[in-house]
Amino acid sequence: MKALPMVRVRYLGRQPYAPVWRAMQRFTDLRDAHTLDEIWLLEHDPIFTLGQAGKPEHVLAAGDIPVLPVDRGGQVTYHGPGQIVLYPLIDLRRLGFGVKQLVSRIEQAIIDTCAHYGVSAERRDGAPGVYVGAAKIAALGLRVRRGCVFHGLAFNIGMDLTPFLRINPCGYQGLAVTQLLDCGGSGETAVVAPVLVAALVRGFGLDPQTAPSELPVMP
């Protein structure tokens, strides 16, 4: 039986956004054909990020929360404590995946994680992300450079959802947002994160190996 490709998994705790973003860019720019894929899991300090297609008018009232334009796809979203942010730093060419497969398998991992807690979640055509009923529980914002993906997903677990009222989430006015805790699942990110990782590596056909809880130093 052929061994599965290895992926390093890093649980990084709570982190400010900008240094992790720069580390993702550096990792992607400096990796080569032999660099192992990585998955980073963390929670961010409160911040609104505006994707490449983002329109500033979708930020209604940022108040004391910073707004940062970034190089991912998508519109505006909120990150904060109690939300799992997962960055799959994966060489798509090496795995033979296209972008549509990437999005589908990330969404499926979130759907499977929700199902683990008895929560029925689903996709929506033309609106990437995962929904429970009419409310969005997870958002996607990705970037592919030289066949390698960075940025990733934000999965609401047990957080203060009120900052979403200050924006049009993902560019949709009045879009309802929910979280796993309010749907009957766990509200603990540390509990849900390994379930999400297991679902994701299963979908990608990867062998997870826990790495140190620190950002990697690239040569």
Structure description:
With 219 residues, the chain is α/β, with parallel strands linked by helices. It has a single domain, classed as Bira Bifunctional Protein, Domain 2 (BirA Bifunctional Protein, domain 2, 2-Layer Sandwich). It has a seven-stranded mixed β-sheet with strand order 7-8-9-6-2-1-10, sandwiched between helices. The chain has a three-stranded mixed β-sheet with strand order 4-3-5, with no helix packed on it. Strand 8 and strand 9 form a beta hairpin. The mean pLDDT is 96.
Question: Average pLDDT value?
Answer: 96
The number of domains is 1
User: How far apart lie the N and C ends?
Assistant: 33 Å
- Structural class call reads alpha/beta
User: What is the annotated CATH architecture?
Assistant: 2-Layer Sandwich
Large-scale geometry:
globular
Order of the strands making up the biggest sheet: 7-8-9-6-2-1-10
- Main sheet: strands, sense, barrel: 7 strands, mixed
CATH fold-level assignment:
BirA Bifunctional Protein, domain 2
Helix content: 10-25%
- What are the secondary-structure elements, in order, as H or E? EHEEEEEHHEEEHE
Number of β-strand runs: 10
Question: Rg, please?
Answer: 16 Å
Indicate the multimeric state: single chain
Q: Which regions are unreliable across 5 or more consecutive residues at pLDDT < 50?
A: none
SS element count, helices? 4
In CATH terms, the superfamily is Bira Bifunctional Protein, Domain 2
CATH class: Alpha Beta
Beta-strand percentage range? 25-35%
